Amino acid sequence: MMKKIILYILLIASALAIFFPILYAFSASLMSTREIFSGALIPASPSVESYGQAFNRVPLLQFLTNSFIVSFVVMIGQLIVCSLAAYAFVFIPFKGRGIIFALFISTMLIPWEATVIPNYFTILNLGWVNTYQGLTVPFFALAFGIFLLRQHFLTIPKEIFESAQMDGCSRFRFYWNFVLPLSKSTLSALGIYGFLTTWNMYLWPLLVTSNNDVRTVQIGLKMMIAQESSTSWNMVMAAVVMILLPTLLLLFFGLKHIRKGLMAGAIKG
């Protein structure tokens, strides 16, 4: 009994330590600037005025909308591209399949920063600077996503595929009617992962956009910090809370799917 109590105390302390920056950001967003600089942790008289100021100072709503569009499109693109590629690696026999898959996986060893310049020149030559295509298309093919889905597809019994073929089921119909419904948890995990990583992306949107009409919310937050860092930290914290809210909600409701999806193909080599 005592061990369980100590364990729960440690878990609660760890949770508070991890969530302290988020809790303080929310608390600071309700304070006045004087309270923040005095080192207060809890606002004496909470006010939501800083939230309105955050929306008025920079086009935060436009940035949030852009981030949602970009993250959603990347999520859908990754699900389509990665599921089709993983399906080919598992259910379509072709020469050199193992070598090609190994090459795909080896790209996970290349730091993303090493591909930034080639990708930028590609986007520049295509005329996709300051467009949603430039922000989304380079991230549709994800080696981790292909690997994750391939591992899960390997757990689907081959007998189902063979029986479907004997009944005249085409490969695409088997992919659509059997493989995808049997992979909902893994697809959900990949979708949430893709949405969250795209939402938090900073360097790539900074490189390929110079127009507020397509810039994402991380760039907007940086603009706000540059303008208000010495005077209005409560407004900056209000913007941080608004940016964190969608990702926290998605993580809270999708955590079960992420855990289940990542475990689904873990035992298949």
UniProtKB/TrEMBL annotation:
Ranges where the ABC transmembrane type-1 domain occurs: 64-254
Transmembrane regions listed in the UniProt entry: 5-26, 68-92, 99-123, 135-153, 174-196, 233-253
Keyword annotations: Cell membrane, Membrane, Transmembrane, Transmembrane helix, Transport
Membrane topology (UniProt): Multi-pass membrane protein
Gene3D superfamilies per UniProt: MetI-like
SUPFAM superfamilies referenced in this protein's UniProt entry, alphabetically: MetI-like (SSF161098)
GO terms for cellular component: plasma membrane
The organism's place on the tree of life at top rank: Bacteria
Gene Ontology biological process terms from the UniProt entry: transmembrane transport
Tagged with keyword Transport: yes
Location (main, coarse): membrane
Subcellular location: Cell membrane
The family this protein is said to belong to: Belongs to the binding-protein-dependent transport system permease family.
Protein name: Glycerol-3-phosphate ABC transporter permease
Organism: Alkalihalophilus marmarensis DSM 21297
